[in-house]
Design a protein that fits this description.
The chain is α/β, with parallel strands linked by helices. It has one domain (about 5-235): Alpha/Beta hydrolase fold, catalytic domain (Rossmann fold, 3-Layer(aba) Sandwich), CATH 3.40.50. The protein is about 30% helix and about 20% strand. The chain has 10 helices and 9 strands. It has helices spanning about 20-25, 50-60, 75-85, 105-110, 140, 150-155, 175, 195-200, 220, 225-235; strands spanning about 5, 30-35, 65-70, 90-95, 120-125, 130-135, 160, 180-185, 210. The strands form 2 sheets. It has a 6-stranded parallel beta sheet, sandwiched between helices. Strand 8 (about 180-185), helix 8 (about 195-200) and strand 9 form a beta-alpha-beta unit. Helix 1 (about 20-25) packs across helix 10 and helix 2 crosses helix 3 (about 75-85). The longest helix is centred in the last third of the chain and has 12 residues, at about 225-235. The radius of gyration is 16 Å and the shape is globular.
């Protein structure tokens, strides 16, 4: 049995893992998801949200050794949290997530991708401190292979994504380097191009990279398949 901490991506919350948690439980694991500051049921104003706050929330949630899964934008805060306080990080799993590169913010990394599918759908807040996604585009970008009810369910819960966490870089050292890692490439991702996910992991050992035949939201599209993959990774 393993303990999983599930960390969502931009605009999402703990709610996006609703179908994966029972699937992991059926395989004998314990799993819980958290709301990062400003997401889900956490009421921190987006203007006050920072990448540091995200990392602090992840460290605070680790009350025992756990495997930490970060989806999409969640790759940045799980990396920062692990480098700051690696004590309870058994392993990091990047699920179609950004893996921070030296000196580059997430926004910088997005610009380096071979295509920019998300950019035309971004709608900035008037104060420029946050952004949302055009609701008419969320199905095609995030949920094109998910059950029909997903768009309504997720669309009612997506929140403003603070700009600050995606505008700062993450530098790492030995703490981060010494934690085992695995990357799951989603081969039909329409948000982070799969070829860019492969580029981010080009120098990783091949056993530490796997694929899922899924779009950007496998937690809705194939929760059983995702749970099985997490189970396989946990078992080494």
């Amino acid at each position: 049995m393993a303990d999983f901490l599930l960390v969502h991506g931009a605009g999402h919350g703990a709610w996006c893992w609703r179908d994966v948690i029972p699937e992991l439980a059926a395989l004998g694991h314990r799993a819980r998801a958290i709301d990062l500051p400003g997401h889900g049921e956490d009421n921190t104003p987006y203007q006050q949200v920072t990448l540091d706050l995200y990392a602090d929330a992840i460290v605070a949630a680790l009350d025992r050794p756990m495997i930490v899964v970060g989806h999409s934008m969640g790759g940045y805060p799980i990396t920062l949290a692990a480098d700051r306080n690696p004590l309870n990080f058994l392993q990091l799993i990047y699920l179609c997530a950004y893996v921070p590169q030296p000196g580059l913010s997430l926004a910088d990394m997005r610009k380096q991708a071979p295509s920019q599918p998300l950019l035309p759908a971004i709608r900035r807040t008037q104060d420029r401190q946050g952004w949302t996604v055009d609701p008419t585009r969320i199905r095609d970008l995030f949920y094109h292979d998910c059950p029909a009810e997903t768009v309504g369910y997720a669309g009612s819960k997506l929140c403003i994504q603070a700009t600050q966490p995606t505008s700062v870089s993450v530098e790492t050292g030995d703490n981060y380097a010494n934690i085992p890692k695995h990357y799951i490439i989603c081969t039909d991702d329409r948000t982070i191009p799969p070829e860019y996910q492969r580029e981010m992991t080009r120098h990783w050992p091949r056993p530490d990279v796997s694929t899922l035949d899924s779009g950007h939201s496998p937690f809705f599209a194939d929760p059983a398949g995702l749970a099985k993959r997490l189970d396989q990774i946990a078992q080494g």
